[in-house]
Amino acid sequence: MPSGPASDGRDALLVPALVALMAVLSPVMVMRIGHDTLTAQWLVVAATGLAIWRAQRLAESDAGEPRARLAWCVLAGVASLTHLYLLAMVLAVFAADRLQGLLVARSLRWRATVSDSASVLATCIPLLWLAGAFTVPRDQTLDAGNAGRWSADLTSLVDTHGVSNLAAWLPGWRMTRPEQWEGWAYLGAGALLATALAVVVLVLRRDARRVLQRSSTLWLAALGMFLFALSPLVTAAGSTLAEFESLRGISLYSLFRSCGRFVWPLHYLLLLVSLLVLARAGRLFAVPLLVFVCLLQVYDLRLHDSFGQRRVQAPKIEHAPWTDPRWTVLAEGRRHLELVSGDGCGRQAAPWLPATHLALRHGMTVNSGYVARMDRSRWERYCVLQRELLESGARRADTLYLLHAEYLDAFRAASSPAVRCETISGQHACVVDVGSLPQG
Fold first, then answer.
1. Residue 372 reports pLDDT greater than 80
2. DSSP character for 340?
3. DSSP per residue over 85-150, as a string?
4. N or C: which end of the chain has fewer CB within 10 A?
5. What φ, ψ does residue 402 adopt, rounded to 5°?
């Protein structure tokens, strides 16, 4: 490899680009492409990267504290508007970063730590309020019946679970419960090789060990979140090892019922630190090694295979958009799409996602959607109002109604004015029959 300033400049650009590529190629990132908010795992990657960057520079006075404070506020603010799980992870990494500077490196003062924490909280709280996080009563944000159900396995980081092109040489086990796909966090063959090579570099080069020493609190935080991700029912390779029934009463397991997702910080910390150690293997080896592990990661994950996600999570065919052209005819002139009934008010009329897509395509409002937690008292009142309205027979000409088959005959019989109905894409759709409207 050529040496000199030009070569140093190229390496300074190429190494971060390769590290970023490996983060994008993480299986937990790739397999979440179908989930709009959980693809924002880049927030966890950015928070971990920021904490590692600061940890390597804590010896340099305040290590860019004003910029770091602003960066933490931005990350926490975006996470507040994106997903509560991601916010919890970002805040945990932030706390570990502050403790590293305060107690380990001793480069931060208590006043600065308190000020930074107050700035981050002052950013999060108004945004959480804006996102409606405080509108649901506390007792209705918990789900004690499913506490820890969607957990991680002790083998989550190395279990291929059928997505690897090298599955014949890498381990893959049956999950103890189908819901444990939430905690699946396979690193990928390239990342596993990077981890193994990083261990070799750490043994041979003492200066590379500073990467670990300067991020000790990050490791503690990531390991703590991994232990939480295991849930009260601890499993390994499809077998139950232990069950701690008393832990199910912890409200955090009810609030974060998909606790398996908390394996992500450990996944990304292990990946980023391993790559950072490889980057310190010397200019002769660093870039070739990083290029090789990237290529191995691409080959292992078979990114060209559009059905890869189905090996981890069964496809949801009912969520496919409705493309029949007859929807356009029925939706013409309609301003609202009404599901009779919506999920939670009886027999669900139709899957909420394609119904929402239909409303979006034709500029209609819709009475359906999906939320993880809701104010049940308000929801029950809405269900009563919808039932009373439908039993009264009042129908709007600007509304397209979707009905469960069980309600179809009663809906027709009670309707005034009369409605005409047809079945499209397996869904029962009704609109007011304009011929039955009074003339004049």
1. no
2. E
3. HHHHHHHHHHHHHHHIIIIIS--S-HHHHHHHHHHHHHHHHHHHHHTTTTSS-GGGS--GGGTT-S
4. C
5. -110, 130
Contact by Cβ (8 Å): 183, 155: no
Residue 312, pLDDT score: 47
pLDDT at 303: 55
Q: What sign results for the dihedral spanned by CA atoms 56, 60, 62, 65?
A: negative
Q: Give the model's pLDDT for residue 310.
A: 46
In the structure encoding, which two tokens stand for residue 21, read together? 């590529």
pLDDT score of 45 more than 70: yes
The whole-angstrom separation of Cα 118 and Cα 123 is 8
Interval 105-119 mean pLDDT: 82
Q: Which two tokens stand for residue 437?
A: 């409207």
Q: What is each CA distance from 416 to 156, 378, 385, 400, 424, in whole angstroms?
A: 57, 28, 18, 15, 23
Mean pLDDT of the 246-257 span: 79
Top-ranked range on mean pLDDT: pick from 126-140, 151-165, 364-378? 151-165
423 bridge partner residues: 428
What lies within 8 Å, CB to CB, of 186 at 6+ separation is 27, 28, 156, 157, 158, 159, 160, 161, 163, 164
Residue type, 353: L
Q: If DSSP codes are grouped into helix, strand and coil, which group holds residue 429?
A: strand
Name the packing angle between helices 405-414 and 376-392 (round to 10°): 50
d(Cα 318, Cα 350) in Å, to the nearest integer?
A: 9
Provide the sign of the torsion angle of the four alpha carbons 220, 224, 227, 229, taken in this order.
negative
- The confidence score (pLDDT) of residue 363 equals 94
Coil/strand/helix, residue 337: strand
Q: Which residue has the tokens 């709280």?
A: 125
Quote the CA–CA distance of 404 and 388 in Å, as a whole number.
17
- DSSP assignment of 21-76 equals HHHHT-HHHHTTTTSTTGGGGHHHHHHHHHHHHHHTTTTSTTSSHHHHHHHHHHHH
Highest-confidence segment of 59-63, 88-92, 167-171: 88-92
Tell me the C-alpha distance between 283 and 78, whole Å: 37
Residue among 267, 119, 273 nearest 184 (CA): 267
The pLDDT value recorded for residue 296 is 92
Question: pTM of the full predicted structure?
Answer: 0.76
